[in-house]
Amino acid sequence: MPSVRLVNVTKRYGEITAVEGINLEVEDGEYLCIIGPSGCGKTTLIKCISGIIEPTEGEIYIDGELMNGVPIQERGVGYVFQEIALFPHMDVYDNVSYGPRVKGWDASRMRRLVDEMLNMMALRDRMHDYPMELSGGARQKAAVARALSSGSLLLLLDEPLGALDVKVRIALRRELRRMVKELGLTAIHVTHDQEEAMAISDRIAVMRAGRIVEVGTPQDLYLNPRRLFTANFVGEANFMVGEVAGSSGGEVEVRVNGEPIYSVRSSLLSSGDVLDGGRVVAAIRPEFVVMEGTDGMNSGFGGLTDGCGASWGGRVRSEAFLGSMVRYEVEADNGVLVAVKLPSLSVGSGFRVGSRVTLTFPPRHVLLYPYPPEGLERAISIE
Ligand code: ADP
Ligand code: MG
Fold this sequence. Notes:
about 375 residues; alpha+beta; Rossmann fold; 2 domains; 5-stranded antiparallel β-sheet; binds adenosine-5'-diphosphate; binds magnesium ion
């Protein structure tokens, strides 16, 4: 049973600290994604787990056994790393069947698994091609198939679907998760695509500048991010700086440029932060803001306002059609620019640039954070 435990894993390259003090447990059978801005240490971390890189400090356990110093071929991992190509002198079939073959599986069992992999990856008609004859995408699919059929119970995947077209990527991530669950594998999957991470994982670890910021289920990270950085990095959020103006019955009132906004989600604050006048950041995702026209027209979510969210007047500044959603920017009368996303059925409904609207912020969707000592910009920056 391959569980993975990282204890204080740190990797330095001279002056550069690529990853620092990583503590993480991945359960047997879990699908975990690692996301984070470019250069934050994702590849370094997954290579430490595989044994390609030795950490400068810290311990790596697979299945409870200390792996420091154990070479990659003895760690029992199947992996897809960008620069580790397929065996160039073997065709797709031989590449994909390599693991079971060296493990001495009987021919029919091996064939069944390899056939299934080739079907799933739509590589059947390419199975006699050599890697150099394949497109980047087909090569990546063959590499994923090889990792899945390697017989390893722990899969380490670094951007395994990155070279594929969107449609294929979406279809394959579904298949990849299905196979991992069906075969009872454990997977650690690095991706820069947060939508992919949400769709495929049981849990997601968010990294920033060599450290893990937060670990949680996709829903947790989206609906209850404990850190401002996560709220900004996963999806989109409006951030409004304000001061606590009072609290009663679990509802906290915050004043943002003089206008009130209410939250029942102050659990992120410590009692000291809820003192009147305390500086906080209120965050709300654009699709949770309710927008109504001054002529009674509304965004269709009036029922979600809980009846008690404060309303701000404002004027639509811009409108962008995103396909399934329309994104508006509204300049509220208190000067705050608020992003609002509505399903595209609102197109043509009259929220035109320049029109007057009312914004309501349902208290259960307003998250409150203590104002970060380093400032809001730095707290959420992905640089
Ligand atoms: P990610 O995969 O998240 O983009 P990496 O793990 O590749 O990030 O890199 C993390 C940091 O470590 C970066 O600043 C990168 O420049 C640095 N780094 C990675 N590999 C090396 C190396 N071999 N030598 C020096 N610095 C490195
Ligand atoms: Mg990388």
